[in-house]
Amino acid sequence: MAKCVALIGAAGKMGTRLTRNLLHSEYDVLLCEKDDAATARLHEQGLRATPTEEAVRRADTIILAVPDAAIRVVSAALVPPAPAGATFLLLDPAAAAADEVARRDDLHYVVCHPCHPPLFGEAPPAGQPRDFFGGVSAPQDIVIALLQGSEEAFAEAKALCRRLFAPVAAVHRVTVEQMALLEPAMAEVVAASAAVLMGQALEEAVRAGVPREAARAFMLGHAQIPLAIVFGAIGSPFSDAAQIAVRWGTERIIRPDWQRVFEPANVRAVIHAMLHPEDAP
Q1: How far, CA to CA in Å, does 111 sit from each of 177, 191, 198?
Q2: Which of 56, 98, 52 is nearest to 79 (CA)?
C-alpha cells in the first residue's frame, strides 16, 4: 500500500515545486490549502484540494510547506489530529531550532532543506532553461535532520525527500542546530547579504556614470572568477594586485567581528527576527 502524504501549502512557492514531483511518485498525495484563492490555483492546474484536517488524519507524513513564521500556529492546529506514528516534515530549520513546533511524543519530526544546484555544476543541455532552484532537471544535494522520533521513520522521510527534491545527488545528515548554521547564518546572513552588497555596488558604478550594460557584464563576469578561486573550481590564485585590493576592501567593508553571526546567541536572534517580524523595532 502506498504511503499517504499530506502536503500543507500545496499552492505556495515551495508547495508548487514539491507537488510537481510528488504527483509523479509512488506516494498517495493529498494537497491542502487554507483559503479559496489558493485552492482555486490548484483547480486551475486540474488538481483537487483535500480538506486539511481530513488529509492530516489520513496521512503517514505531513509536509509543512508554509512560511517559517506560520509554523508555530500551523503545527499547533495540525499536531492534535495527526495519527500516532505519523511524521511531520519541515522544510526549513528555523522553527525547529527555535522550538516553535508543536510536538507529541508519539509523532516523528524530520527537517530537510535543499542545497540547490551548485554554481559550478553542469550546464543544462542546449535549449533547456537553467534550473536554479533544483527539483526539475539539475542534480542537487539536500541536508536532513531528525528532530524527534525513530531511525525507521527518519529513513522513510529521507526516501521521501529524495523524491521531493529530485534529482538528488547526495543526502547529508546533520543536526537541526547545524542546519541553522547553514541557513540562516551562512547562506542568508552572510552569502545573501554579500550578494545584495554586490548588487548595490553595481548601482554605485551606474550612478557614477558607467553604462548599466557595461557595469552588469563586468560585475557578473568578475563575480564568477573570485568565487571559482575561493571554492577551488579553478587552480588559479588571486593576482598580487587583487590580493591587495581584497585586503583593502575587507578592512573597509566587512566588520572585523563578522564571525559572531555564527555564535549560538546570534543564530537564535536572527531566527527569532525571521519568525517574529512583528517584534522588529
Answers
A1: 11, 22, 31
A2: 56
Look up cell 534529482; give the residue.
Answer: 167
Number of CB atoms found within 10 A of residue 180's CB: 26
Contacts for 174-178 with beta carbons within 8 Å, 24 or more apart?
174/143, 174/144, 174/145, 175/145, 176/93, 176/96, 176/97, 176/111, 176/145, 176/147, 177/97, 177/264, 178/145
**pLDDT of residue 2 exceeding 80:** no
Entry pTM: 0.93
Instruction: Write 114-122 long-range contacts (CB < 8 A, 24+).
Output: 114/140, 114/141, 114/142, 114/165, 115/140, 115/141, 115/142, 115/143, 115/172, 116/140, 119/227, 119/231, 120/228, 120/231, 120/233
Tens of pLDDT along 163-205? 999 999 999 999 999 999 999 999 999 999 999 999 999 999 9
